[in-house]
Amino acid sequence: MRINEKLNALLTYLMSESWHAEARREQDGEYGVKAKIAVQQVKAYVDEHYREKLTLESVAERFFINKYYLARLFKDQYGVTLNAYVQRVRITHAKRMLRFTDEKIENIGIKCGVGELSYFSRIFKKVEGVSPREYRSMW
To answer: pTM above 0.85?
Structure first.
């Protein structure tokens, strides 16, 4: 009788979950809690490894997620693409270094994972509206 009771409880639970899947999906968002946690882990990884060469493909491979699925999840959760977020993190660290160190601008670009001076200057100006040199002189 106890086994029968447990089986009935299990079946009742399974049936209620299957009948109310839409409500649970709305509560957890379109992709669910596991997907949100995975994207948060990706963001934390980018925040820590921004100096390295990061591509959508390499990050997706590292977390065993399809790159197109990851791109959609990341954009839905944070409002920017993964590549744009990586760029934003790098520029933020570059701004900090420009303000608080006397490091050469060429080295800052390399240390922040952006690359050589010409590319770093172009990306920095695109994001901030001024060159790295002009930004440093403002502070």
So the answer is: no
